[in-house]
């Protein structure tokens, strides 16, 4: 895959010169940790697509899985927090892997290390990207269920598509002037996120609608056995659970946009994690305790609706659900900003076409946001959130596994081990990161593929593999493009020096 470098070319100088293309696409340092937290605080809403799905397989044991998954997030994010301060200009997981795996003194056209790091970034992009489609579908589903007049005039798909167009377009306009504008919207929508979620989840304890017997009497399905089949299903569930419960690492993706990344990243990261720990356990427990496993089975996509109706009545539940729908815009924004930064990061590293590295005058990668919006309007046609999530989880498992291996390499390689680390994970965390990296790849990866097969359809697996596989031709094109730019940049500098 490598080739001899042309005689007379100063490749190190060429690498520096070719980065002129990306300097115009630098992100702007404009937020502090509280603003980063405000953008990421919508992560607890990621539980919504999976409440019914998990209960169908695990019954009340789903509560335990959520708790363990958030714990897994803390274990992984301690490593990511350190990487974020080691590489303060890197955009979260996509940036970490690309910085660690690229060859420091590579000469030639193709860098296999960049292929690995870039694939991790692409996997992460695919993990966050479909959140837009999933929650647009949920918005359409809640609107369709809540308002009979809308249901009479429009199908659920039409409402979801319209919601996607309005929300995606609105967020592009809001974030056009930079991430600080998105943070302002985050502050506003955070209230709509936490208040309705808290009201719906806590009200049943005050009204007496919560029954602990619904939880303790249905810990696991009656036919559950700890055999290979069920363990593989459980690994697949864990793969889908971490897509939601570990996703607060997105607070680290804004590393290049924090004013003081050394302190801002850890504060934003672990504040969001503490909120998620409480939210994920409490939401699944409340839903199970109020409507039981049979009630969840009757409303697998929108189980929060019967919970709200039981505790608040028709009027109160309508108000709470409308607020919850507004809050879904927050998690769509979180995903939108995260996936667009992932594309920008890959393009600046030469792992995607350089046109995607361009930002507007306010440091916003608008073109990347437009492409992501169109892609998700297409994904909405898949119809069911769980099918999209299952495909997306394949990417998230790959991204986490490779990023954790990147942490191990960053602690082991002499030139990287000596880099300054304002925030450090506990001693020996390299071994913990390796353990969870192996849990992701191969265990969770095998689990999610097996779970898809149990569902009776390979469609999600095929979509996931095809999207991830699309990266390979894009990478070869991007590396060729970057190679041509290096040659042109050196030729320009040489001609100037001769004059």
TrEMBL record:
Cell compartment(s), UniProt: Cell membrane
Transmembrane segments: 37-68, 122-143, 155-174, 186-208, 228-248, 269-299, 319-338, 359-380, 386-408, 429-451, 457-477
GO cellular component, one term: plasma membrane
UniProt GO molecular function: transmembrane transporter activity
Protein's recorded name: Dimethylamine permease
Position of the signal peptide: none
Keyword Transmembrane helix: yes
Membrane topology (UniProt): Multi-pass membrane protein
Pfam families: AA_permease_2
